Amino acid sequence: LLLGILGAPALGDPGPLEDVVIDRYYIPKICLREAQMGDFIRYHYNGTFKDGKKFDSSYDRGATVAGVVGVGRLITGMDRGLQGMCVNERRHLIVPPHLGYGSIGVAGLIPPDATLYFDVVMLDIWNKNDKLQITTLSKPQRCNRTVENSDFVRYHYNGTLLDGTPFDSSYSKGSTYDTYVGTGWLIKGMDQGLLGMCAGEKRSIIIPPFLAYGEKGYGTVIPPQASLVFSVLLVDFHNPKDGVFLEHLEVPESCKRRAVTGDFIRYHYNGTLMDGTLFDSSYSRNQTYNTYIGKGYIIPGMDQGLQGVCVGEQRRVVIPPHLAYGENGAGDKIPGSAVLIFDVHVIDFHNPADPVEIETVFRPEGCNVTTRNRDFVRYHYNCSLLDGTRLFSSHDYEKPQEVTLGANKVIEGLNSGLLDMCAGERRVLIVPPHLGHGESGARGVPGSAVLRFEVELISMEEGVPEGYLFIWHGEPPANLYEQMDLNKDGGIPAEEFSTFIKTQVAEGKGRLMPSSDPEKVIADMFRNQDRNQDGKITPDELKLKSDEDQEKIHEEL
User: Is 3's pLDDT higher than 60?
Assistant: First the structure.
């Protein structure tokens, strides 16, 4: 009873506290680090008395508290209560007077012998011996090159404080962060953290304050002495000294010729950014890209990258931005300072000065008679593009192709390729578009396409000069009309005319223009001579072609 009256502890009262009481009421699932003596920490707190009256709060000041733990810079109770905390951990601390402000207190703020109650949340922990912490989250299987000092990088990032509070993000701005590495344009920790990255790689980079914004912080978003966490995706990088990088994916075993400046080339391509984003494709348009190379019609990097390609080659061309679209980019699909990757498949190329390329596959022995212009020929052919795409074939029809050479009935290149051939000879012809179907192409033939023909000459008939339907092997009869007028009635109808011409051919005295339809040739001859179209030829109407040509010369004179 006396002890109670004198103020001794009542039954059940534990008495004065000997040490800090710690209640770890929230512990994060992941705790990578605990505060140790000598660590630098940042935290928020509310300080109250037992009755709940608040005497201090970092929240009210709008600034966290930063300091070194366990070295006597804090009251002893707080020094002890903060040790072992994780980032984002929350604790209730009860600090007895002898571990707080003791019997003196703090004038006007904390009375003597006051027990203090703190609600603390740990926000940051670091040490002066800390180093950059880099964790690779994902990395592409293919990585030919990594970031070095002086490289220009484009990357996306999310930036947070160590407690997860976001302070910045490139994603929210809708564009990458673009800068040089190792030249002082970035905080030291980011300069170091980007080194060795591959395009497409993702990293988590934890930067201690002394490699970030240090004691000053940055604006209102990064407090002083804050560790920073960056989640980085490297989109692409290059060096201003870079040239075009070539990778030969597939080169045909037979490559007789390589493209040079001035050649006109047709190729398919997929264009991607370094992170794999497709920005353009000729395949999606189902049409090749056609252009001259080395003449400035395309970006400089592609002008260089297509030099030396073979027909059928597949090549990867990696182009730095200073040889592509530079700092401004192009449209809404190619960002500024973007590295471009083109996967190219060369369909064909030619030079405007190219002739027909002729390769004789087979030539019969004893070949004395060869084709000339105006000859009538029969031949088989297969026509394809240089990439092997089949276009046409005479074998799809019942009989060979028939044509009079030099009569503008076939493309110029094919006509040239059929000259000087023997019956039975086989050739491969490569026909450039200016001797084929030109820039416009034809039905089933793309514009500016180089064509490949496999031809076999089946037969040939000697032709007649241009403009003639029939020629005499010697001098024509002096009394031609009398001989042609078989019934001597003074007029030559179509039947008599046809009989006479056929007789001359049969006797070897002359020959018709070669044709698959001789009757039509004779009918055309009769129509030319029957000048008044009355169905018969009179003496005044009948004239030799050579005489007609001579009369025209006199008229001109």
Answer: no
List C-alpha distances in Å: 354 to 134, 234, 349: 59, 47, 10
- Give the count of alpha carbons within 13 A of 134, CB side only: 16
Mean pLDDT computed over 368-390: 94
**Catalytic residue IDs:** 45, 55-56, 75, 101, 118
Instruction: Tell which residue, 82, 119, 67, 75, has the closest CA to residue 98.
Output: 75
State residue 15's pLDDT score.
60
From residue 53, how far is each of 94, 115, 116, 238 by CA, in Å? 14, 12, 10, 60
CA–CA gap between residue 117 and residue 49 (Å, rounded):
6
Residue with the bigger pLDDT between 238 and 475: it is 238
Task: For residue 362, give both structure tokens.
Answer: 């087979």
Q: Where are any strands of DSSP class E within 334-480?
A: 340-350, 357-362, 376-385, 390-393, 401-404, 426-431, 451-461, 470-472
Contact 244, 306 (CB under 8 A): no
The owner of tokens 């395009």 is 199
pLDDT at 48: 97
Cα gap 316→318, rounded to integer Å: 7
15 vs 450: which has the higher pLDDT: 450
Report the alpha-carbon distance of residue 381 to residue 426 in Å, rounded: 10
Look at residue 307 and tell me whether its pLDDT is greater than 90: yes
Location of structure tokens 């006479």? 500
What is the structure's pLDDT at 14? 53
**Own/partner pairs, 474-477, CB within 8 angstroms, 24+ separation:** 474/509, 476/544
The CATH class, in words, for 21-126 is alpha beta
- CATH fold label, 133-238: Chitinase A; domain 3 (3.10.50)
**Which fold, 470-556?**
Recoverin; domain 1 (1.10.238)
Side chain identity at residue 346, one-letter code: V
Summarize pLDDT for 479-519 with one digit per residue, the tens: 888 888 888 888 899 998 999 989 988 888 888 888 768 89
DSSP per position, 381-406: EEEEETT--EEEEGGGSSS-EEEETT
Please state at what angle helix 494-506 crosses helix 518-529, rounded to 10 degrees. 120
Compute the average pLDDT of residues 396-417: 93
Distance CA 436, CA 445 (A): 10
Integer angstrom CA distances of residue 193 from 123, 129, 151, 159: 22, 17, 13, 13
Three-state SS string across 182-212, please? CCCCCCHHHHHHCCCCCCCCEEEEEECHHHC
Residue intervals in the chain for CATH 3.10.50.40: 21-126, 133-238, 245-347, 357-461
**CATH code given to domain 245-347:** 3.10.50.40
Whether 181 shows a pLDDT value over 50: the answer reads: yes
Residues 6+ apart with CB under 8 A from 128: 40, 210
* Backbone φ and ψ of 135, nearest 5°: -125, 120
User: Cβ(384)–Cβ(450) under 8 Å?
Assistant: no
Contacts of 134 (CB under 8 A, 6+ apart): 193, 203, 204, 205, 206
Fold classification of 357-461 (topology level):
Chitinase A; domain 3 (3.10.50)
